[in-house]
Amino acid sequence: MSVTITVGLDGTGHSLAAADWAAHEAARRGAALRLVYAWVWRAGDTGFVGDRDAEERAVRAVLGDAAARVSGAHPALDVTTEVVVGDPVPTLVDEAARAEMLVLGSRGYGTLAGYLIGSVSLHVLRRTTRPVVMVRETRPENPAPRPSGEIVVGVQDAEAAGGPVLDFAFASAAERGVPVRAVYAWEVPPVLMWSPGSLWMAEQQGGLEPLHRRILADALAPWREKYPRVEVVEQVESGPASEVLLSATGGAQLLVVGRRTHEPGVRRLGSVTHAALHHAPCAVAVVPHA
């Protein structure tokens, strides 16, 4: 069965950066690359009278230019393009379901807090059951990550349910021949902050930090065995999870975070994922898990 990586284009520089990233990934994996543009003619909705044919030609030109760009960089890559007539969110969710992963452009953090909230990308992230990689356009203030950089993964769910997140991170590292940095953040439980007796009992068990180091080591053990060639750096720190995780991404080429899907009817992203999408200097892979 052939593997396909799909990119959602919208004509912005961020989506072109996504196409570049996805092309490198497809070439590395021997996968096919699919470029799609979800487009709906909305002149009737807005009251604007325009030229539908001219707009469609412009949309197709965006796809053609992107295809030429990635084919020029990767001549052997299998590249297909399609204009899909439909609302972007359901269209991209459907596209993601048929792909190994969906790659989208991300604006990152803008001048207003919550700049991404309500965007097409976030609505897609909340609904898809497939990994989505968000890529930011390279600019002077946002330099491209080093190709030799680590794969950083946030280990929030140390139980088996978080396995898809770790598997994605380890597989990505194995394909690139780079280390995985597994980051686990913990905070002192409130009861221990006001209960000297409870704190003493915790210290008798070896202290809180060694306990959390064991939790992380146990979570990583199956993936160390599955990917024995991948070097692993275990980072355990006390503090807010988003701050600890972002502090580890300075030299990363990819940050992998999870999104829970087990709560029926709830479509949301956690605070750590939000922080990663807003502030991480590298591409961010959001991997759904139970």
Describe the structure.
The structure is a single chain. The protein is an alpha/beta fold and 290 residues long. The protein folds into two domains: 1-140, Rossmann fold (3-Layer(aba) Sandwich); 145-290, 3-Layer(aba) Sandwich (Rossmann fold), CATH 3.40.50.12370. It is built from eleven helices and ten strands. It has helices at residues 13-29, 43-46, 52-73, 88-97, 120-127, 163-176, 190-194, 196-204, 208-226, 241-247, 271-279; strands spanning 4-8, 32-39, 79-85, 101-106, 132-136, 150-154, 180-186, 232-238, 252-260, 283-289. α1 (13-29) packs across α3 (52-73). It is elongated. Residues 4-136, 151-288 form the UspA domain. Pfam families: Usp (PF00582). Belongs to the universal stress protein A family. This is Universal stress protein.
The assigned CATH architecture of the largest domain is 3-Layer(aba) Sandwich
DSSP E strands, number: 10
CATH domain topology of the largest domain: Rossmann fold
Question: What's the order of the H and E elements?
Answer: EHEHHEHEHEEHEHHHEHEHE
Which segments are poorly predicted (pLDDT under 50) over 5 or more consecutive residues? 110-118
Gross morphology: elongated
- Provide the CATH top-level class of the largest domain: Alpha Beta
Into which percent range does the helicity of residues fall? 40-55%
The helix-and-strand class reads alpha/beta
How many structurally independent domains?
Answer: 2
Note the total helix count: 11
How would you characterize the largest beta sheet? 10 strands, mixed
C-alpha Rg, in Å?
21 Å
Strand adjacency order, main sheet: 3-2-1-4-5-10-9-6-7-8
The CA-CA distance between the termini, in Å, is: 25 Å
For the residues shown, what is the average pLDDT?
A: 84
Strand portion, in percent? 15-25%
